[in-house]
Each structure stands twice: as structure tokens, then as C-alpha cells.
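Need a sequence for this fold. Nothing fancy.
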């Protein structure tokens, strides 16, 4: 029986194994994205399989911190496998006070929910979101309210489209 084994059969078996292991290991994930700000936090949801994101909601972030109850409800509803937090930086890439606050927010998310959290440079995400909203017909007030979740969607889409290093 072993003598009947053809080399081409080994290639097919290897391809089959690699293909299905890759599918299991790299199952597309649902991802929640956050555009962190001191007063408001925009939230979006995205799917890795389509590399697209949808704006969800703007959460208020009063002095006492993020609305953790609302974030808990969003995580329960969408059941993400990953969270992405936009981290604002100066144009030259250096950190600011809000950078440190966003990084602290990402650490709190990881601690509270036990989910992996990645950060993404969010420079110009709010500008891109405002440009997208300006291109839509509608009232200015609606546009202003929609900037934060749309910025979160821009952050997620940027994260989906960044090059990834696959370690084999």
C-alpha cells in the first residue's frame, strides 16, 4: 500500500492541511474600533473578512471617564474578538497628553474585558471622517454628531488595510 503512494498525493495532502489549518488559525474576526477623546468616544464595528467598518455610536466621556456600562453592552451585543483603539499623535509622530490617555484607555479595555487590544495611529482620521460627512447631503448638526463613530470606522479600515506579518 505504501508502495502505491504517489508523490503528487503528498502535495495534495500538504495543500489540504495547510489550507484548512490556515482557515482555522485565521478565522475572520469581528472587531470593535474606538476613536478615543476626552469628551466623546466614537465606536465602530468591522469585519476582517470584508475589511470594512460601520459607524455605531458616540459615547460620552465625562470627567469621571468612559461610559463602561455602554461599552460593556456593545461588547455583549457585537461579541468582538479584538478591539482597536485609535491613538492620536502630533503631526511629527510624537506623543501628546491625549496619546497617553488613549493608551491608558486601551489598557483598561484589555484589563476589563480580557480581549486583545491593538492600537492604531489615528492621525487625520477625524479629518477624513469630516470630509466623508461633508460629501453627504444633510444638516451640519447631524454631520457633527456623526464624526466620532465615522472616525472610529476610518481607524478600523486603516487597521484592516495595514500590512500584516504572518509568522509561519
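Here you go.
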Amino acid at each position: 500500500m505504501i508502495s502505491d503512494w504517489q508523490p503528487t498525493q503528498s502535495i495534495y495532502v500538504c495543500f489540504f492541511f495547510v489550507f484548512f489549518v490556515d482557515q482555522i488559525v485565521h478565522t475572520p474576526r469581528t472587531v470593535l474600533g474606538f476613536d478615543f477623546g476626552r469628551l466623546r468616544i466614537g465606536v465602530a464595528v468591522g469585519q476582517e473578512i470584508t475589511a470594512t467598518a460601520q459607524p455605531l455610536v458616540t459615547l460620552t466621556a465625562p470627567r469621571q471617564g468612559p461610559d463602561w456600562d455602554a461599552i460593556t453592552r456593545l461588547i455583549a451585543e457585537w461579541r468582538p474578538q479584538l478591539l482597536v483603539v485609535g491613538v492620536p499623535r502630533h503631526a511629527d509622530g510624537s506623543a501628546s497628553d491625549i496619546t497617553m490617555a488613549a493608551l491608558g484607555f486601551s489598557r483598561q479595555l484589555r484589563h476589563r474585558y480580557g480581549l486583545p487590544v491593538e492600537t492604531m495611529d489615528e492621525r487625520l482620521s477625524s479629518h477624513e471622517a469630516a470630509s466623508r460627512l461633508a460629501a453627504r447631503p444633510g444638516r451640519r448638526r447631524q454631520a457633527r454628531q456623526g464624526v466620532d463613530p465615522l472616525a472610529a470606522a476610518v481607524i478600523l479600515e486603516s487597521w484592516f488595510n495595514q500590512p500584516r506579518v504572518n509568522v509561519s
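For context: The beta strands are 30-35, 40-47, 52-60, 82-87, 117-121.
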